């Protein structure tokens, strides 16, 4: 099962729960069973699933919920929070510090994508104006230095390695020394991997770590590793001070469960994901955004960042989103801002409720937004401010008034619900916080 299937299965389970009229223990149990099955098929370890189900049950106390509370919404939010928790160990992600050399050591099994990710990371920071350098401390695999040299040259990044010296500790130490003297701000050391975890590899890694004293050890893990992930990540974590994770090959048919187990085993955050073989194919990782996209909610933080390029920080609609209030009027204002971005084909998938509309391409997305804006133009002030509900009859008259198909009115209101569902999420880690974050 690929990651997309995991998202679909969990979304369907949540939708099935939303469609039931009575919410009781049985509904919650059925939902948890479905969510558990989906995670299990994605290779998430059973222990983690059991723990997650327990956390959800502990948080949902149906008998203590006051009448009138929106139970379905609370349950959805709890499931969402717990999914995020699986991917977020709650420790801050490593960030290099300006004005000093930041030494980063890469570890992982052979073939995980270490050397490729070393170059990607160096290139990522180079593009942001950091002085970066790469060191090849893999003296075990023939051709490792050649590969690093090739990648570094392609990315225009200084590198160090040796064909003669066979002691990886010496090579790592020398490389770091040279680049520290040269004033490099980020020095990335690639170490060797083996096909299997062997004692020699771990001993060598420990010695390199002691010698170069890295500011961060990054564990590189192939996303398709599956059930073996937990054990493997634990083995690395107990040998060296793993501080961050990069998950590679997320562009493939990955089940993704390995990533979740890797986080649990190392208690380290995923900082980047590799999404292709090429140097720019590295994306910053954010658990909230990831889960949000997985469940088809769109990428609000990406969207806010984009919107911020064109709207002033004190815009009323951004303020409303940040405060968790979101009306059709705010949505109309957002759409108008989004249209200013020009063609939105690159960007349409970030909009909640629109990420499942593959039929919208290029200009079609812009036309759709314009149509929505026109429909909202036909609404009354009270409707725009959420003070008057829009029933079926009114939907038909809005269709007539705006000259659009009634289906589009329905789509628009569904879209609004998708937005509202995300933005209205309160509490730590909620989407109102996300909007806050983005508007800072
Ligand atoms: P290492 O042995 O851990 O250093 O692994 P390499 O960096 O040599 O990568 C092993 C293979 O995985 C190479 O063919 C890479 O091109 C490929 N690879 C690495 N990262 C990614 C990724 O994010 N996506 C895809 N599709 N391939 C990747």
TrEMBL record:
It catalyses: GTP + H2O = GDP + phosphate + H(+). Residues 269-282 form the SRP54-type proteins GTP-binding domain. GO terms for biological process: SRP-dependent cotranslational protein targeting to membrane, translocation. The keyword Cell inner membrane does not apply. It is found in: Cytoplasm; Endoplasmic reticulum. This is Signal recognition particle 54 kDa protein. Belongs to the GTP-binding SRP family. SRP54 subfamily. InterPro entries: AAA+_ATPase, P-loop_NTPase, Signal_recog_part_SRP54_M_sf, Signal_recog_particl_SRP54_hlx, Signal_recog_particle_SRP54_M, SRP/SRP_N, SRP54, SRP54_euk. It comes from Polysphondylium violaceum. It holds the Pfam family SRP_SPB. The lineage of its organism: Eukaryota, Amoebozoa, Evosea, Eumycetozoa, Dictyostelia. HAMAP family: SRP54. The NG domain, also named G domain, is a special guanosine triphosphatase (GTPase) domain, which binds GTP and forms a guanosine 5'-triphosphate (GTP)-dependent complex with a homologous NG domain in the SRP receptor subunit SRPRA. The two NG domains undergo cooperative rearrangements upon their assembly, which culminate in the reciprocal activation of the GTPase activity of one another. SRP receptor compaction upon binding with cargo-loaded SRP and GTPase rearrangement drive SRP-mediated cotranslational protein translocation into the ER. One of its GO terms (molecular function) is endoplasmic reticulum signal peptide binding. CDD domains: SRP54_G (cd17875). Keywords: Cytoplasm, Endoplasmic reticulum, GTP-binding, Hydrolase, Nucleotide-binding, Ribonucleoprotein, RNA-binding, Signal recognition particle. Component of the signal recognition particle (SRP) complex, a ribonucleoprotein complex that mediates the cotranslational targeting of secretory and membrane proteins to the endoplasmic reticulum (ER). Its main location: cytoplasm. GO terms for cellular component: cytosol; endoplasmic reticulum; signal recognition particle, endoplasmic reticulum targeting.
């Amino acid at each position: 099962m690929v990651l997309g299937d995991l998202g679909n299965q969990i979304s369907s389970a949540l939708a099935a729960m939303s469609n039931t009229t009575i919410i009781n223990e049985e509904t919650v149990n059925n939902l948890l069973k479905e969510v558990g099955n989906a995670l299990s098929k994605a290779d998430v370890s059973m222990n983690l699933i059991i723990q997650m189900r327990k956390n959800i049950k502990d948080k949902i106390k149906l008998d203590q919920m006051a009448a009138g509370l929106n139970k379905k919404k609370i349950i959805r939010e709890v499931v969402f929070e717990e999914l995020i928790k699986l991917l977020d160990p709650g420790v801050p992600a490593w960030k290099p510090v300006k004005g000093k050399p930041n030494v980063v050591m890469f570890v992982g099994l052979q073939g995980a994508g270490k050397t490729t990710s070393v170059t990607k990371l160096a290139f990522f920071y180079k593009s942001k104006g950091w002085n970066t350098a790469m060191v090849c401390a893999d003296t075990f695999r023939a051709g490792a230095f050649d590969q690093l040299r090739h990648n570094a040259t392609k990315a225009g990044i200084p590198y160090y390695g040796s064909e003669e010296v066979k002691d990886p500790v010496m090579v790592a130490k020398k490389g770091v020394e040279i680049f520290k003297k040269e004033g490099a701000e980020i020095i990335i050391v690639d170490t060797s991997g083996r096909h299997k975890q062997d004692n020699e590899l771990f001993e060598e890694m420990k010695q390199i770590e002691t010698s170069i004293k890295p500011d961060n050890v990054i564990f590189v893990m192939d996303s398709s590793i599956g059930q073996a992930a937990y054990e493997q990540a634990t083995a690395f974590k107990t040998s060296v001070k793993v501080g961050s994770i990069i998950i590679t090959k997320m562009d493939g048919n990955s089940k993704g469960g390995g990533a979740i187990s890797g986080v649990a085993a190392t208690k380290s955050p995923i900082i980047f994901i590799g999404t292709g073989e090429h140097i720019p194919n590295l994306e910053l990782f954010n658990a909230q955004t990831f889960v949000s996209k997985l469940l088809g909610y769109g990428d609000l933080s990406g969207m806010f960042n984009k919107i911020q390029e064109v709207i002033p920080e004190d815009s009323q609609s951004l303020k409303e989103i940040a405060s968790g209030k979101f009306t059709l009027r705010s949505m109309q204002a957002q759409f108008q801002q989004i249209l200013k971005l020009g063609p939105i084909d690159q960007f349409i998938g970030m909009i909640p409720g629109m990420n499942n509309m593959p039929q919208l391409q290029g200009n079609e997305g812009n036309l759709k937004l314009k149509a929505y804006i026109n429909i909202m133009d036909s609404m009354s002030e009270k409707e725009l401010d959420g003070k008057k509900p829009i029933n079926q009859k009114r939907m038909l008259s809005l269709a007539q008034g705006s000259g659009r198909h009634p289906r589009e009115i329905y789509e628009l209101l569904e879209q609004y619900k998708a937005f509202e569902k995300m933005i209205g999420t309160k509490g730590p880690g909620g989407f109102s916080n996300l909007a806050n974050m983005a508007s800072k």
